[in-house]
């Protein structure tokens, strides 16, 4: 028997009421905790997300400091003269810079978004297994400090070039970090199921995030094995050859082969966030919700199967190199190309977009991802070119396009859009936001362009000395790095001012950006033929869930949810006015 719309509405209402009661209990427990205790442990989803977000910003500055040490040294001397730091510390700074930016900044930011976006979009506002999530967060930070404090022996980027190697502390820390990531991933996936209603499809954005967690959790299995293998081996400090197999080949085979999904960990969660945000600025659903949802399994399969083309010249079976190094590397571009096609079609004429720093970061991230893909595809997978090109500036030019301008830039856009709702404060200064945007684009754009051009001219990688001909490239890299550094300081300054002096946001139980996103997605799904009982749970149109408890008789515990029936007010597009970057969202 097909349920009537009234029965479906009643089911939605009761589910929201159930979650609202549980969330009220969470708030009551949170009220009893001091600020210090909340820093150590929290079960409230926004507080948890803010804690992770602030930690990501801290690692941003730590990793950025290492980067500026590198750029300063390279930009002031082509002869390896220790103008800034000794060459041994130069290599250590390079290792720590990569670790802090990838795992400290990028991965922590992904978890921060996941713990905020999922409870907001599914309406539950609940985190599953918060003890595991908080323990994973602190273990992850401990692990990162262990890797950073390994001393000048920390040169894991060069473990293939014996006798350079990482310290045992680094390998132990990396193993602990993998365990910490598993803990946070388990909590994220549990949170998605906490807010799932049987028979209902989850919002598309949540689908991307959960897929991302599953992919990375599986990839981390072989990474953990590789890390333990390396720890026990001579290169890890314990001087044990397991089965007589050289450590370097095991590391490359297990780590670089299976952990290639790590480069998609930020992009896939970011894709989910973009799918949620783009309709808000377009004031209409994604061009095709069904096609967008099909990108989730497609991206999962291809992202998990891309053999690392960095080592195509290694003695692996030819069929593996042909299939994974070339074919899969080309195919993985397809879901990204399809996503951006849907993104641009949905937004339509850019002249009609109400621009702010948030959508500017996201829009430019899309463009940079396309540029980075075009730059990489013709060269990286080709065995005749890769061994040479991979040891030049071409590769770190490509990597900085993909990580700093696409991944980190896109995440910054999401923070600008959803940040006012998460922090409860409107951004203090929109002008500072625009300064951050243009400074970041100019700095990292210059950096990536110069690195790529220098690489084509033969500028080598992983060295402290080079021909004087290349020094001008390193000087421009120094300028680009410092531009991006100053832009980041502007962002942090704006963030601090926002927390201290930002205008308070109107408080609603469920953040309005999530309400509008779900309403638009449901609207689009109806147009594409989805059944009413399949649609994601509808959120109250004004974002408010009011519990009017009755204390007598059979009606005890029965509550009401206001405005559930007013979803139609949110669509079509002329009825919604959004200025999300500054925290303003209102119905006309």
UniProtKB/TrEMBL annotation:
InterPro entries: Cyt_c_oxase-like_su1_dom, Cyt_c_oxase-like_su1_sf, Cyt_C_Oxase_1. PROSITE patterns: COX1. CDD domains: Heme_Cu_Oxidase_I (cd00919). Keywords: Membrane, Transmembrane, Transmembrane helix. GO terms for molecular function: cytochrome-c oxidase activity; heme binding. Residues 30-504 form the Cytochrome oxidase subunit I profile domain. Gene3D superfamilies: Cytochrome c oxidase-like, subunit I domain. The chain crosses the membrane at residues 52-70, 101-121, 133-152, 172-193, 205-226, 262-282, 294-312, 324-347, 359-376, 396-423, 435-452, 472-497. It holds the Pfam family COX1. One of its GO terms (biological process) is electron transport coupled proton transport. GO terms for cellular component: membrane. Coiled coil: none annotated. This is Heme/copper-type cytochrome/quinol oxidase, subunit 1.
